[in-house]
Amino acid sequence: MKLGEARQALTDYTVFTLSRRQRIVCMLISGLLFFGVGILFYHHWLAGLILAAGCIWVPKHWTKVLLERRRMTLSLHFKQALYALSSALAAGKSVENGFKESVEDLRMLNPEADTDLIREFTILRTRMEYGQPIEEALQDFSDRAKIEDITNFADVFITCKRTGGDLVEVVRRTSAVIGEKLDIQQDIMVAVAQKKFESKVMFAAPFIFLIFLNFTAKDFMEPLYSGMGYMISSGALALLACCYLWITRIMDIKV
Questions:
Q1: Is residue 15 assigned to a domain?
Q2: Is 3 inside any structural domain?
Q3: Nearest alpha-carbon partner for 175 in 119, 93, 102
Q4: Domain named Type II secretion system protein GspF: which ranges (predicted)?
C-alpha cells in the first residue's frame, strides 16, 4: 500500500459516518417521536405522518452530536497522554521511547479500552519502528484531528525537535497549559449540566401538560383540534422548536 493510500485509510476526526444500523434506528425512533407529537398536537394521523417525515434530517444532527463527543473525548485522552509523555521524558527516556511508553500507560488506565488516542499512539509507535520520523507521524495525526490543542502541541514539538530545544520542558509546559484549558472546559460542563437538565425538563413540560389535559379534560381541549385550533397548535409547535434551537445554542459554550 502506498503512503497516500495508507493515509487515506486512517481516521479523519473531522467527519463521522453513522452505520446503516445506527441511521435506521435513529430515523425509526425520531420518526415515532415526531408522529406522536403530530397526534398529540393535531389528533390526526396525516399530521403525524407529515411531522414524522422530519426524521430524515435527524441523522445529520445526531452525527454532529457524536462527532463533537468523539473530539472532546480525544482531547481529554490527549491530555492524559501528554502527562504520561512528560513523565517519561523527565525520567530520561528518549522522545521515541516516551511515545512508546505512553501507549502502555494509557492502556494501564483502562486495560479493556480501545480508544481513538490509543490507536493513534500505536500508529505513531509503528511508524517509528518502520523508520518514519516522529515529526512526520505527529504532523499527520495533527492534520487528521484538526483539534487546536493537538495542532499547537505538534507545531511546538516539531519546531523544538528541529531546532534542538529542551523537549522535556516544552512537553511539560505544553501539557500543563492544555491541561488547564481542559480543566476549565470540564468546570464549565459541570456548571451548565444542571441548567441543561432544567432546560430539558422545561422543554418537555408543555408536552406532558398537553397529554395530561387530553386525558383529564377532553371537552376542554376539543376546540384546539378544529378550525383556528390547528393554527394555534402550529404556532405553539413552531415556538417550541425555536426555543429548543435557542436553548441548544445558548448551552453550546466554547473555550
A1: no
A2: no
A3: 102
A4: 84-213
Amino acid making up residue 229:
G
Does any domain span residue 14? no
Q: Residue 74 in contact with residue 147, Cβ under 8 Å? A: yes
Amino acid, single-letter form, for residue 44: H
C-alpha grid cell for residue 220? 376542554
CA-atom Rg of the chain in angstroms: 25
Q: What is the pLDDT along the chain (255 residues), one digit of tens a residue?
A: 444 444 546 888 989 989 899 999 999 999 999 999 999 989 888 889 999 998 999 999 899 989 988 998 888 888 888 888 878 777 777 777 887 788 777 777 766 667 888 888 888 888 888 888 888 888 999 999 998 888 888 888 888 878 877 777 777 787 778 778 877 877 887 877 778 888 888 888 889 988 998 888 888 888 888 878 888 888 988 998 898 888 878 777 665
Who's near 208: CB < 8 A, 6+ residues apart?
none
Q: Domain span at residue 245?
A: 20-251
CA distance 162 to 230: 69
Burial of 123 (0-12, 13-18, 19+ CB in 10 A): middle
Whether residue 10 is contained in a domain is answered as no
Structural domains in the chain (count) = 1
Cell numbers 460542563: residue: 189
- What number of residues does the chain have? 255
pTM, full prediction: 0.80
